[in-house]
User: What shape does this take?
Amino acid sequence: MPRRAVVTGSASGIGLAVATLLRERGEEVIGIDLRDAEVIADLSTPEGRAEAIEAVRERSGGTIDSVITCAGVARPGELMVRVNYFGTTEVVEGLRPLLAGSPAPRVAVVGSISATQTPDPEVLAACLAGDETAATAAAALAVQGPGANTIYPATKAALAQWARRTAIAPGWADAGIPINVVSPGVVLTPMTTALFEDDAMRKVMDQAVPMPLHGYAKPEDVARVLIWLAEPSTTHITGQVIYVDGGAEATLRPADRF
Assistant: This one.
């Protein structure tokens, strides 16, 4: 039997690369996105997440083998919090019963090198507390001032912390379900196209995320690592953050941070 994977954000960028590579391997893919997917759903709302989970349940017959979450937005604001954090965590948690029926369930989520940067503390705390109302309110406040660029790091830092604590919580590791994070550096996707067209912004990115190994990544470079984490043969890795960043994290942080 081919494995059955759920991929959020499957219509573009890293999600599309993951879905394409999995299908080429013979796996069944249930994509979730706003368009061009098996499940059309808006992960920015609790209702949309619930609809997505139920649609996957119906399409899968009650069992899935992996969840790979790639849906995300880069524009600072409330939507970033709703999609990047809650649109990931609620979907993964909602699909846990379906994963439990697989002989080799796996979860891999897309984080970011930006999680190593200074986050908005209110957004971070509210996300980790599971308070979407407070998190979006904090983001709405931050986006009006100089703290707009701290919202994205907050959502990704919260996601990494959620994954690490959830990975060893009851019902996950003890049930054979690993959760890991893949944190890319700069990736050439539709979400970053406008940034690369601005020379000044490109210089800022190169300073903020130096990538001495091979430079900017392609979506497939990140997708292959996500897929590796979702393979049945990858057995004893959980609660980890793996940087696919061309050496950015090692460049930016002290060598004794590991």
About this structure: The mean pLDDT is 92. Residues 77 and 143 are 6 Å apart (CA to CA). Strands lie at 4-8, 28-33, 39-40, 66-69, 106-110, 179-184, 241-244. Residues 78-99 form the longest helix (22 residues).
